Amino acid sequence: MWSRRKKIKPARVDTIVGRNTVITGDVKFSGGLHLEGTVRGNLLADDASQESVLILNQGALVEGDVRVPRVIINGSVEGDVHAFVHVELAPHARIRGNLHYTMMEMAAGAEVNGSLVRQSDEPMRLEHLDVPAENARREVGKKPAGATEAAPAMPDAVTKDS
Predict the structure, then answer these.
(1) Is residue 5 included in any domain, yes or no?
(2) 114 Cβ partners below 8 Å, 6+ apart?
(3) Top-confidence residue, 75 or 50
Protein backbone atom coordinates (compact mmCIF):
# COMPACT_ATOMS: atom_id res chain seq x y z
CA MET A 1 0.00 0.00 0.00
CA TRP A 2 2.73 2.48 0.96
CA SER A 3 5.43 0.84 -1.14
CA ARG A 4 7.99 3.10 -2.78
CA ARG A 5 8.93 0.45 -5.33
CA LYS A 6 8.17 1.30 -8.90
CA LYS A 7 5.53 -1.04 -10.22
CA ILE A 8 6.60 -3.03 -13.27
CA LYS A 9 3.99 -3.46 -15.98
CA PRO A 10 2.79 -7.02 -16.53
CA ALA A 11 4.52 -8.72 -19.43
CA ARG A 12 2.65 -8.85 -22.72
CA VAL A 13 3.39 -12.14 -24.46
CA ASP A 14 3.33 -12.18 -28.27
CA THR A 15 5.17 -15.48 -28.88
CA ILE A 16 5.24 -18.78 -27.00
CA VAL A 17 7.88 -21.44 -27.64
CA GLY A 18 6.54 -24.76 -26.33
CA ARG A 19 8.21 -27.23 -24.00
CA ASN A 20 9.12 -29.80 -26.70
CA THR A 21 10.44 -27.21 -29.17
CA VAL A 22 14.17 -26.87 -29.96
CA ILE A 23 15.33 -23.85 -31.96
CA THR A 24 18.86 -23.85 -33.39
CA GLY A 25 20.18 -20.41 -34.33
CA ASP A 26 19.79 -16.86 -33.10
CA VAL A 27 16.30 -15.59 -32.25
CA LYS A 28 15.42 -11.91 -32.72
CA PHE A 29 12.11 -10.78 -31.29
CA SER A 30 10.14 -7.75 -30.20
CA GLY A 31 7.33 -7.59 -27.68
CA GLY A 32 7.04 -10.54 -25.33
CA LEU A 33 8.59 -13.99 -25.74
CA HIS A 34 7.63 -16.83 -23.39
CA LEU A 35 10.10 -19.71 -23.65
CA GLU A 36 9.38 -23.18 -22.32
CA GLY A 37 11.63 -25.12 -24.74
CA THR A 38 15.28 -24.88 -25.81
CA VAL A 39 17.13 -22.29 -27.88
CA ARG A 40 20.64 -23.17 -29.07
CA GLY A 41 21.72 -19.68 -30.06
CA ASN A 42 21.47 -16.10 -28.88
CA LEU A 43 18.22 -14.39 -27.88
CA LEU A 44 18.14 -10.75 -28.96
CA ALA A 45 15.43 -8.15 -28.48
CA ASP A 46 14.90 -6.13 -31.66
CA ASP A 47 13.21 -3.28 -29.87
CA ALA A 48 14.62 0.18 -29.19
CA SER A 49 11.64 1.17 -27.00
CA GLN A 50 12.84 -1.17 -24.22
CA GLU A 51 9.38 -2.73 -23.89
CA SER A 52 10.49 -6.24 -24.93
CA VAL A 53 10.42 -8.91 -22.27
CA LEU A 54 11.70 -12.48 -22.18
CA ILE A 55 10.16 -15.03 -19.82
CA LEU A 56 12.06 -18.29 -19.32
CA ASN A 57 9.82 -20.87 -17.73
CA GLN A 58 11.06 -23.61 -15.43
CA GLY A 59 12.66 -26.25 -17.64
CA ALA A 60 13.53 -23.79 -20.42
CA LEU A 61 17.13 -23.70 -21.65
CA VAL A 62 19.10 -21.09 -23.60
CA GLU A 63 22.52 -22.13 -24.86
CA GLY A 64 23.82 -18.71 -25.87
CA ASP A 65 23.77 -15.07 -24.84
CA VAL A 66 20.61 -13.16 -23.93
CA ARG A 67 20.33 -9.43 -24.74
CA VAL A 68 16.95 -7.99 -23.74
CA PRO A 69 15.65 -4.98 -21.83
CA ARG A 70 13.59 -7.01 -19.35
CA VAL A 71 13.86 -10.68 -18.46
CA ILE A 72 12.25 -13.06 -15.97
CA ILE A 73 14.28 -16.25 -15.57
CA ASN A 74 13.02 -19.44 -13.94
CA GLY A 75 14.94 -21.76 -16.28
CA SER A 76 18.59 -22.12 -17.35
CA VAL A 77 20.91 -19.92 -19.38
CA GLU A 78 24.34 -21.11 -20.47
CA GLY A 79 25.83 -17.82 -21.59
CA ASP A 80 25.90 -14.16 -20.62
CA VAL A 81 22.70 -12.29 -19.80
CA HIS A 82 22.42 -8.56 -20.59
CA ALA A 83 19.26 -7.04 -19.09
CA PHE A 84 19.21 -3.32 -19.88
CA VAL A 85 16.22 -2.41 -17.69
CA HIS A 86 15.24 -5.17 -15.25
CA VAL A 87 16.04 -8.79 -14.46
CA GLU A 88 14.10 -11.07 -12.14
CA LEU A 89 15.64 -14.37 -11.05
CA ALA A 90 13.00 -16.80 -9.80
CA PRO A 91 13.81 -19.72 -7.45
CA HIS A 92 14.70 -22.18 -10.25
CA ALA A 93 16.85 -19.71 -12.25
CA ARG A 94 20.28 -21.03 -13.24
CA ILE A 95 22.78 -18.83 -15.09
CA ARG A 96 26.17 -20.15 -16.11
CA GLY A 97 27.76 -16.93 -17.33
CA ASN A 98 27.93 -13.27 -16.42
CA LEU A 99 24.84 -11.26 -15.55
CA HIS A 100 24.86 -7.61 -16.68
CA TYR A 101 21.95 -5.73 -15.10
CA THR A 102 20.62 -2.31 -14.21
CA MET A 103 18.02 -3.44 -11.67
CA MET A 104 17.81 -6.99 -10.31
CA GLU A 105 15.50 -9.06 -8.13
CA MET A 106 16.77 -12.45 -6.97
CA ALA A 107 14.71 -15.06 -5.15
CA ALA A 108 16.14 -17.58 -2.71
CA GLY A 109 17.34 -20.62 -4.62
CA ALA A 110 18.38 -18.78 -7.80
CA GLU A 111 21.98 -19.35 -8.94
CA VAL A 112 24.43 -17.25 -10.92
CA ASN A 113 27.71 -18.99 -11.69
CA GLY A 114 29.58 -16.01 -13.07
CA SER A 115 30.01 -12.33 -12.35
CA LEU A 116 27.27 -9.86 -11.45
CA VAL A 117 28.00 -6.66 -13.36
CA ARG A 118 25.85 -3.63 -12.56
CA GLN A 119 25.26 -1.29 -15.52
CA SER A 120 24.32 2.32 -15.01
CA ASP A 121 23.33 5.22 -17.23
CA GLU A 122 24.86 7.65 -14.74
CA PRO A 123 28.45 8.74 -15.39
CA MET A 124 30.98 7.58 -12.83
CA ARG A 125 31.54 10.20 -10.13
CA LEU A 126 35.10 10.66 -8.92
CA GLU A 127 34.72 13.38 -6.30
CA HIS A 128 35.41 10.91 -3.50
CA LEU A 129 38.98 10.37 -4.74
CA ASP A 130 41.73 12.41 -3.08
CA VAL A 131 44.01 13.52 -5.91
CA PRO A 132 47.31 14.91 -4.54
CA ALA A 133 48.56 18.29 -5.71
CA GLU A 134 51.64 18.58 -7.93
CA ASN A 135 53.85 19.62 -4.99
CA ALA A 136 52.76 16.64 -2.95
CA ARG A 137 53.70 14.35 -5.82
CA ARG A 138 57.23 15.78 -5.90
CA GLU A 139 57.62 15.45 -2.14
CA VAL A 140 56.90 11.73 -2.06
CA GLY A 141 59.96 9.94 -0.73
CA LYS A 142 61.61 13.09 0.75
CA LYS A 143 62.11 13.37 4.51
CA PRO A 144 60.97 16.50 6.31
CA ALA A 145 63.81 18.86 7.29
CA GLY A 146 65.45 17.90 10.60
CA ALA A 147 63.93 14.41 10.62
CA THR A 148 66.11 11.54 11.76
CA GLU A 149 65.58 7.88 11.23
CA ALA A 150 64.51 6.09 14.37
CA ALA A 151 64.96 2.39 14.88
CA PRO A 152 61.69 0.49 14.87
CA ALA A 153 60.34 -0.11 18.35
CA MET A 154 60.80 -3.65 19.62
CA PRO A 155 58.07 -5.14 21.78
CA ASP A 156 58.99 -5.88 25.39
CA ALA A 157 59.64 -9.53 26.07
CA VAL A 158 56.81 -11.23 27.83
CA THR A 159 57.59 -14.19 30.04
CA LYS A 160 55.25 -16.64 31.56
CA ASP A 161 56.07 -18.11 34.94
CA SER A 162 55.25 -21.78 35.27
Answers:
(1) no
(2) 80, 95, 96, 97, 98, 99
(3) 75
Does the pTM surpass 0.70? The reply is no
The answer for residues whose C-beta is within 8 angstroms of residue 37's C-beta and 6 or more apart is 17, 18, 19, 20, 21, 22, 23, 60, 61
Angle at 54 (CA atoms; ends 96, 23), nearest 5 degrees: 75
- pLDDT-derived band of residue 7, with 50, 70 and 90 as boundaries? very low
Specify the number of domains making up the chain.
1
Mean pLDDT of 26-55: 90
The length of the chain is 162
Residue-range definition of the domain harbouring residue 65: 15-118
- Residues in contact with 136: Cβ distance below 8 Å, sequence separation at least 6, in sequence order: none
- Nearest Cα neighbor of 26 from 76, 71, 64 is 64
Tell me how far the alpha carbon of residue 44 is from its chain's centroid. 18
Q: Is residue 151 part of a domain?
A: no
